[in-house]
Design goal:
mainly alpha; two-stranded antiparallel ribbon; two-stranded antiparallel sheet; binds iron/sulfur cluster; about 250 residues; 4 strands
Length: about 250
C-alpha cells in the first residue's frame, strides 16, 4: 500500500490518500493482470492498507467492543468488489468438502441465501435478520478474508450496536475511522479497476458468490474485461455518478 497518509488537510487529506492508494492498486494490476494471483494480491493490499491506516486514524479513540466473536453486524447487507468476491469464492471452493464433513453445507447455504436475500434492499436485509451464510456458531468461517464492508463496521458499545443491527431506533457509537478508511480504500480499488477496464461495481455478496461458484470460468471472464457478476450489482450504487467523482478527484 502506498504510504500511510494521515487523513488531514496538512497531509493532503482524503483525496491525496485516495489518489495514492488508487495509484498503488493500479501498479499491482499492471504488474499482475494476467497472473492468477491478481485477486489475492489486490485483496491483501486492500486489507493491509485498511488495517494500517485505520490504526493511524484511530489513535486515541476508545477501545472497540468488536473482538471477532460477535456476529451482530453479520445480519446486514454485505457488498463487495469483484476481487473480494473471487477471493471468497476460491476459499469456499477449496474448503467446501472439508466443511461438509463437519456438517456445514456451505454451497447449499449460499444458494439459499442468494434466493432469500440476494435481491433485498439494505432496509429489507436488516428487517430479514438472517445471518450471513458464512457464520457458524457466531464466528465468520472466512474471517481473515472478509470483505472491506465487514472490516469497516466497528462499534464502541456492543449492546447498542446489536440493537441498531436489529433495526431498533438507537444511536450506536460506530468508529468513524473504520467507515472512512473502508470507503476510501474500497473506492480507490474500484477506481483502479475502472482505469484498467475491469468490472468495478459493488456486488451483493450472496448473489455474487452463488454466481461465481456456479461458473468456473467467472474469474477468467472478469480478467478479460467482462462482468460475469453483473446481475449481483446493487442497484443503489450508481456507476456513472461514481465514475464522475473518481474522474474529478483523480484530475
Ligand atoms: S463475510 Fe464474515 S464478517 Fe462478513 S458478514 Fe459474512 S460472516 Fe460476517
Amino acid at each position: 500500500m502506498e504510504g500511510r497518509i494521515k487523513l488531514t488537510s496538512a497531509d493532503g487529506g482524503p483525496s491525496a490518500f485516495f489518489k495514492a492508494t488508487s495509484h498503488a492498486f493500479g501498479e499491482t494490476i499492471d504488474a499482475g493482470r494476467t497472473r492468477p494471483e491478481l485477486v489475492a494480491l489486490l485483496c491483501a493490499q486492500a486489507f493491509d492498507g485498511f488495517a494500517k491506516n485505520v490504526a493511524i486514524q484511530s489513535e486515541g479513540d476508545p477501545v472497540l467492543a468488536c473482538h471477532g466473536e460477535c456476529a451482530g453486524c453479520c445480519r446486514l447487507r454485505v457488498v463487495a468488489t469483484a476481487p473480494e468476491v473471487f477471493l471468497l469464492t476460491r476459499f469456499i471452493s477449496v474448503n467446501a468438502a472439508a466443511f461438509a464433513e463437519r456438517g456445514i453445507m456451505l454451497l447449499n447455504r449460499i444458494e439459499a441465501a442468494d434466493r432469500a436475500l440476494g435481491a433485498l434492499t439494505e432496509e429489507q436485509r436488516m428487517a430479514a435478520q438472517a445471518a450471513c451464510p458464512l457464520i457458524e456458531r457466531e464466528l465468520c468461517l472466512a474471517y481473515k478474508l472478509r470483505p472491506l464492508a465487514c472490516r469497516g463496521h466497528a462499534a464502541f458499545d456492543k449492546g447498542s450496536c446489536l440493537a441498531a443491527a436489529r433495526g431498533e431506533a438507537v444511536e450506536a457509537p460506530i468508529s468513524t475511522p473504520h467507515l472512512v478508511v473502508r470507503s476510501l480504500v474500497q473506492n480507490a480499488l474500484m477506481a483502479a479497476l475502472r482505469r484498467a477496464g475491469l468490472a468495478w461495481g459493488l456486488y451483493e455478496i450472496n448473489k455474487a458468490l452463488n454466481i461465481a461458484l456456479s461458473a468456473p470460468d467467472a474469474l477468467e471472464q472478469w480478467i478479460s474485461g467482462d462482468d460475469p457478476l453483473m446481475s449481483a450489482r446493487i442497484p443503489d450504487f450508481d456507476l456513472i455518478e461514481a465514475g464522475a467523482i473518481f474522474d474529478a478527484v483523480e484530475g
